[in-house]
Amino acid sequence: xKSRYKYFILKDSMLYFLLLLCVFLVLSMIEPKAxxxxxxxxxxxxxxxEFGILALGMMVTIITxxxxxxxxxxxxxSGIFAxxxxxxxxxxxxxxxxxxxxxxxxxxxxxxxxLLMGCFxxxxxxxxxxxxxxxxxxxxxxxxxISTVITGGQSLRNYPVVVAKLANESFLGIxxxxxxxxxxxxxxxxxxxxxxxxxxxxxxxENPLASKFSGLDNKATLLKTxxxxxxLAGLSGLIMMSRFNSIKVGYGNSYQLLTVLVxxxxxxxxxxxxxxxxxxxxSVLTLQCIASGFNILGFTNYVRNIIFGTVxxxxxxxxxxxxxxxxxxxxxKQKKAIAFV
Length: 341
Hints:
This protein is an all-alpha fold. The protein has helices spanning 2-30, 32-35, 38-63, 71-93, 99-126, 132-151, 161-168, 176-194, 196-206, 208-213, 218-244, 255-265, 277-297, 301-340, and strands spanning 170-171, 174-175.
């Protein structure tokens, strides 16, 4: 049974990899010089990490049948907190700040801030039983408001050089931030597919009542899920502040729709209980290729939003209609079998 389960995971992942390959080849044939240029390929690799990490965070919450609308606001506020703590350290360090300590500060503060905000979401949803869409909509506005009050709506900038290197330097022609995305994808694959917590998240998303009567703590599962989403949001905020060499409320707002879109495109069931990390990771790369192709072909942001919105609706329709069609097919086969007998 276990080997068959692994086979289906591999089969799903291969399908999404082939889709990525097809999109890449089609765009390469349409605009070979522009799309396959070193500049374009590196540009795509630089843009993937923060979006991809946010998509993984969104995916985990959708698997439980919920959603995290505050994930972008969380990322921005985490970067703002990290910036403020870093500024305080630079004031006390004087002319000899430690590059190592600067990196430790911004990484830890981003992760801790993201964790606390994710924990707050989890408490609202698990303990107070507020629907996820309403709870995270409220915290989205709350986090954005706090960010605006702290910064006055202005961007925080003038970071040390070491901060910008994290998301703007390359190793062997590949951005360091892209290696970070691969590493986090691997960690999430292990967490969701190889640990007890991952299994309980899937079980809760599939059937919360069955999960409860199996002896699992549903409240703890939800709380941990949104903590994971928060930490991933914080890491995304870290990469954003490094790549732009600044942080401001509103950065990454265009990712809000896309994180949901890429999760659903990656086979995550919006009702919960289903979704594979590798499929979502391949969907992130596929969507980035499509977005890059749109830029090369001269599509405006408005046209892109229309196309992405249409794709999301079509995928949702397929997800809704496919179980109905398959169940009708099974019912017809059963009727034929009964008639034959």
